[in-house]
Amino acid sequence: MELRRISGQKSKTLFEFYDPKGWPSQWGKMPEMMRQLITTLESIDYEPVWVFTSHAELLFTNKDDYKDWQVLVQIIEINKTQHYKITAAQENPWHHLTGFADNHNSAAELVVSGLSVSAVGKNRNIFLDSN
After folding, report:
1. In this structure, are residues 82 and 29 in contact, taking their beta carbons and an 8 Å threshold?
2. Which of 69, 100, 103, 123 is deepest in the core (most CB within 10 A)?
3. Contact 96, 88 (CB under 8 A)
4. DSSP per-residue letters across 53-116
5. Which of 35, 47, 18 minimizes the C-alpha distance to 107?
6. Do the Cβ atoms of 5 and 13 come closer than 8 Å?
7. How many CB atoms neighbour CB 51 within 10 A?
8. Are the CB atoms for 21 and 68 separated by under 8 Å?
């Protein structure tokens, strides 16, 4: 899968953005986990996808635009262990489907699954469509 950085964020590659040296220790292994996920996704045979970052989140979209997203990846802590949280945008009545993974291979599978079932064109934002 080719991960195409949106035009507005081309000053840094995803690997540069998630460089562990650039993140405070309070983020734990988040930067390393995101790098592992990126490497895994890049090895998958899949159509190119646009990506952008917002704070620590990694978002996937079908166009060179940060206003819409299809899949959102976050690192969250559950029982003092960090996990991937993958959210796929959906139509009503369910606004989102969410899955959790404890390793980058499972997280990559959830990202690909999310891309295949996500709704597009809803001008979604990182606040998870509070409407």
Report:
1. yes
2. 69
3. yes
4. EETTEEEEESSS-TT--SEEEEEEEETTEEEEEEEEE--TT--EEEEEESSHHHHHHHHHHHHH
5. 35
6. yes
7. 22
8. no
Tokens describing residue 73: 């990846």
Q: Which DSSP letter does residue 23 get?
A: S
Asked if 2 and 45 touch (Cβ cutoff 8 Å), the reply is no
Helix axes 30-42, 104-117, angle to 10 degrees: 60
Helix (H, G, I), strand (E, B) or coil at 52: strand
In angstroms, the CA 85 to CA 73 distance is: 6
User: Can you give the pLDDT of all 131 residues of the chain as single tens digits?
Assistant: 999 999 988 888 999 999 999 899 888 899 999 999 999 999 999 999 999 998 899 999 988 988 888 899 999 988 888 999 998 887 765 567 788 999 999 999 999 999 988 877 655 554 444 33
pTM equals 0.86
How many CB atoms lie under 10 A from the CB of residue 100?
13
Inter-residue contact 91 to 107 (CB < 8 Å) = no
